[in-house]
């Protein structure tokens, strides 16, 4: 990733863009964006927003499996 790409990534991150949005914008894979973000000391906190929904979905799936058994 070039220095201008890294700068664009920092700007998009500062603007609140998600990892996937940044990846699409700079034309790189989400994993590449994650690696560069880590190198730059940037973090994506979106996981905290979706964690309750993910936990509820996991409980629903486990419940469905118990009913099917």
**What gap, in angstroms, lies between the N and C termini?**
50 Å
User: What would the average pLDDT be, to the nearest integer?
Assistant: 85
Rg computed from alpha carbons, rounded to a whole number of angstroms: 17 Å
* Fraction of helical residues: over 70%
Q: Helix count, per DSSP?
A: 4
Q: Return the string of H and E elements.
A: HHHH
Could you describe the largest sheet, including whether it forms a barrel? none
Strand content: under 5%
Secondary-structure-based class equals: mainly alpha
Give the strand tally.
0
* Unreliable stretches: none
Shape: elongated
Structural write-up:
The model has no long low-confidence stretch (mean pLDDT 85). Helix 2 (19-26) crosses helix 3 (30-40). The protein is 78% helix and 0% strand. It is an all-alpha fold.
Features:
69 residues, mainly alpha
Layout of helices and strands:
Blueprint (H helix, E strand, L loop, with lengths): L2 H12 L4 H8 L3 H11 L5 H23 L1
What is the structure about, briefly put?
With 69 residues, the chain is mainly α. The protein is 78% helix and 0% strand.
